[in-house]
Write a sequence for this structure.
């Protein structure tokens, strides 16, 4: 039999509609008394839930509640985990070994059989695409590899299918982006590439761990529509791990709420949100960001802005195809003619789609990218001399979008958080540094857990031992420890659940009021902009299309693109 062509590369060769002609009384996945432990300590406590073919179930809860561990355990992807219970799944062509007709127990399958199910029958979208994607291969090659391994598709056909999958997830210039490596894409584009990879074989069940975390509001809607369309056409079920309650309202059929490894409430989305029975569920629903910032005039003649930019421009060299490329190089302009000022104690919010230039603007503001135009931070301009920049860097710190890739996996929490003190306050002794580290951890909400014994040996742990939200709090603690005057916040709450997001925003607001901190806030979350920003820049394709006070821009947007952002939010 010959290998399938390009169409077969996108559509799995097995007809899902035929495969799903099981008795409707049998769920696609039924989890019974699932327990997960590490070193004898149980973190998931006998949970039960089921997913019917074509159903969308959302699993919500705070960071560390057990959501991701539950999803990963279904495919036995958690290292050193002790698993108990059953996860009965109606796999394609698998030999049943349970009393439920046509189902296999994922927790009891031999590794070889389970390997055949991973990626084909059950696919997963991971929370942090930068760590899930291979940095040595282009994203197109990585998507094509799934089709070659799982479907036996030819190299040429799988390459074309990879381009189509990238286009379907909303990535512009899909053919060019397929040749890009993960570090050459924005955070949102990397997440979309991960989604394309997961959907390559049209799985029966998709485990989506925060699939829209890095996406702006317009593309979030596109991805949800795409997943919904594929689900309806192919009978795909979705287990959605998320902290975004607006996403749950829009996308899911049912919701299960997790707290400390227990499912405390589950039911139809509309019923649970309209009449939550458990106090924890009510706490989640009431966790929308609240504006509590110092209002007042933006600046005075005697008040020098903490950061000022005039006609800022950032461009990357690119090759020119054809004969002309032998003699000269072209350029891609990522930021065009941006001007702004950030007064002391105020927040400038920058909002726009993935790839609009937001993060590039942030990196240029940090002196990490070459730029043209004028840019002053803490009263001075960035220099190529490292020693001269050290004074500015003590005043300007950053919290990156992806905490896992920005935290060294070889350093302990104490070393990571206290690293800035070694550079900027070398006179402190080890005892003083540890005291400052503990205080900074307490400021971001981890000190209480340290004192209560929740994080045993916290200071000597490594980043991989924490959830995504906990890692982001470590990143914020690292930025705060040297008492900067300006924080550049690149999607600082995108990895946090709603309750922790509200706490972190409240912390940032309090620090701003008490210490006069200024923020350059990069985010796609309009609710966060409303809660935090005094002034707003709206960016599209590298240009500032609208700017002004938060009330003027969000309550009475003038530009069509701004109106789309506000309406989608």
């Amino acid at each position: 039999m010959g290998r399938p062509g390009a169409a077969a590369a996108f559509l799995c060769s097995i007809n899902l509609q035929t495969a799903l002609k099981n008795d409707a009384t049998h769920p696609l996945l039924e989890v019974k008394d699932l327990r997960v432990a590490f070193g004898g300590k149980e973190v998931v406590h006998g949970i039960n839930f089921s997913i019917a073919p074509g159903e969308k179930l959302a699993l919500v809860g705070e960071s560390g509640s057990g959501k991701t561990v539950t999803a990963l355990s279904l495919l036995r992807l958690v290292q050193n985990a002790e698993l108990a219970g059953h996860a009965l799944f109606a796999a394609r062509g698998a030999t049943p070994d349970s009393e439920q007709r046509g189902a296999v127990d994922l927790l009891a399958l031999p590794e070889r059989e389970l390997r055949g199910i991973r990626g084909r029958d059950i696919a997963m979208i991971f929370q942090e695409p930068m760590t899930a994607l291979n940095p040595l291969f282009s994203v197109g090659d990585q998507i094509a590899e799934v089709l070659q391994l799982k479907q036996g598709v030819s190299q040429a056909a799988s390459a074309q299918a990879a381009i189509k999958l990238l286009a379907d997830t909303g990535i512009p210039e899909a053919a060019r982006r397929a040749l890009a490596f993960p570090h050459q894409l924005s955070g949102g584009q990397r997440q979309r590439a991960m989604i394309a990879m997961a959907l390559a074989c049209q799985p029966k069940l998709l485990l989506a761990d925060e699939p829209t975390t890095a996406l702006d509001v317009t593309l979030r809607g596109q991805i949800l529509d795409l997943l919904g369309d594929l689900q309806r056409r192919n009978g795909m079920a979705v287990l959605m791990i998320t902290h975004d309650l607006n996403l749950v309202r829009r996308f899911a059929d049912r919701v299960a709420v997790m707290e400390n490894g227990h499912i405390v409430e589950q039911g139809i989305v509309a019923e649970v949100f309209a009449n939550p029975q458990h106090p924890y569920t009510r706490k989640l629903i009431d966790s929308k960001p609240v504006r509590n910032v110092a209002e007042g005039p933006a600046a005075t003649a005697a008040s020098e802005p903490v950061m000022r930019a005039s006609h800022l421009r950032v461009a990357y060299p690119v090759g020119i195809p054809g004969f002309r490329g032998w003699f000269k190089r072209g350029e891609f302009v990522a930021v065009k003619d941006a001007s702004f000022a950030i007064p002391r104690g105020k927040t400038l919010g920058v909002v726009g789609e993935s790839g609009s230039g937001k993060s590039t603007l942030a990196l240029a503001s940090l002196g990490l990218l070459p730029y043209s135009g004028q840019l002053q931070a803490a009263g001075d301009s960035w220099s190529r001399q490292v020693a001269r920049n050290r004074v500015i860097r003590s005043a300007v710190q950053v919290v990156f979008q992806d905490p896992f890739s920005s935290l060294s996996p070889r350093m302990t929490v104490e070393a990571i958080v206290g690293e800035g003190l070694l550079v900027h306050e070398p006179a402190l002794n080890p005892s003083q540094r540890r005291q400052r580290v503990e205080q900074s951890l307490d400021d971001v909400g981890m000190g209480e857990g340290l004192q209560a014994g929740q994080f045993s040996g916290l200071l000597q742990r490594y980043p991989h031992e924490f959830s995504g939200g906990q890692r982001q709090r470590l990143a914020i603690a690292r930025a705060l420890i040297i008492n900067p005057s300006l924080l550049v916040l690149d999607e600082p709450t995108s990895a946090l659940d709603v309750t922790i997001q509200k706490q972190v925003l409240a912390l940032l607001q309090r620090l701003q009021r008490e210490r006069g901190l200024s923020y350059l806030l990069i985010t796609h979350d309009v609710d966060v902009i409303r809660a935090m920003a005094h002034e707003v820049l709206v960016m599209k394709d590298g240009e500032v299309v609208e700017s002004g006070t938060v009330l003027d821009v969000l309550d009475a947007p003038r530009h069509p693109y701004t109106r789309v952002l506000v309406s989608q939010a």
